[in-house]
Amino acid sequence: MRLGGILLLLCFVLPASAADLEVRPLFKDNTLRTYIPLPFQVKGASADFTALTAVTVTGSSSCRTLLDPHIPTNFFVKCKEPAEITLSLSYLAKDQIRKVTYGPLQITKISESGEVVDPGGDTGPSAEWLLGQNLYHNKKYSNGKTCARCHDNPAEKADRISVNALNGAISSINDMKGISLTEAEKKAIVTYVQSFK
Ligand code: HEC
User: Fold this and answer.
1) Ligand 1, closest atom to CA 149?
2) Start-to-end CA span in the chain (Å)
């Protein structure tokens, strides 16, 4: 009876082998930056996988996690301070809670200065910067997608973007064909994205 109880307990907290569940970042270049909600997904879970139940971070107290309310395999991590972190995940599989860890991951500063953005000195964001922000995150182009939908981390392109680079991308990248912007709008997007340098 007692042994049965112990065995039962063991079954409930059986640690999953890492191979059971693969965690992968859902963004390019594995650019892990501060202040950006970083999306992750668990993949390759056995057929028994039901849902993530908790994600906790060790290594920094400046990080927060959020389970995606709509997609049971997805979660987000956001950190304010650069740090080396490890993620501990609990998930439900065949009515048992299993655990797996992932990491370490290096979270780096969003920009050289460590500031979130520096859009416009003391007077606050410039009208151009705000326009660029809106065009990047909110405006849906002819393919129904925002820039951010495909380039979720503007900091990734901060060093490379220019009006020329943008024109080149619009004319040569299939996913971006059909994006129509005035010269002023292109400059605004460039100003916005470059502010993440
Ligand atoms: C449907 C997906 C999609 C949308 C929407 C999209 N892009 Fe792209 N973009 C791509 C892909 C794919 C590439 C080529 C791979 C890469 O460089 O990321 C690219 C490349 C680029 C490049 C040149 C590559 C580089 O890094 O030097 C820039 C600049 C760029 N995109 C900016 C934008 C901006 C600004 C918007 C919104 C106006 C936008 N993209 C909307 C998919 C998209």
Assistant:
1) 5
2) 64
- 6 and 103 housed in the same domain: yes
Q: What is the pLDDT of residues 37-83, one digit of tens each?
A: 888 988 865 667 888 889 999 999 999 999 988 888 899 999 998 99
**CA-derived radius of gyration, the chain:** 21
Is 67 found in the same domain as 13? yes
Residues 125 and 56 in one domain: no
* For ligand 1, mutation pick of 137, 164, 175, 180 (most atoms within 8 Å of CB): 175
Ligand 1 closest atom vs CA 175: 1
CA-proximal residue: ligand 1, atom 9 (nearest): 176
> 44: CA distance to ligand 1 center in Å?
29
Q: Ligand 1 centre from 168 Cα, in Å?
A: 10
Task: Annotate 150-169 with DSSP letters as a single string.
Answer: H---GGGGTTT--HHHHHHH
Structural domain boundaries enclosing 9? 2-107
Same domain membership, residue 126 and residue 56: no
pLDDT, tens digit, 9 for 90 and up, residues 95-129: 888 888 998 999 988 776 655 555 555 566 788 99
60 and 125 in a single domain? The answer is: no
Ligand 1 center to 79 CA (angstroms): 25
- Could you tell me if residue 115 is inside a domain? no
Contact 51, 96 (CB under 8 A): no
pTM, whole model, 2 decimals?
0.53
Closest CA to 127 of 180, 182, 185, 181: 185
Residues 86 and 42 in one domain: yes
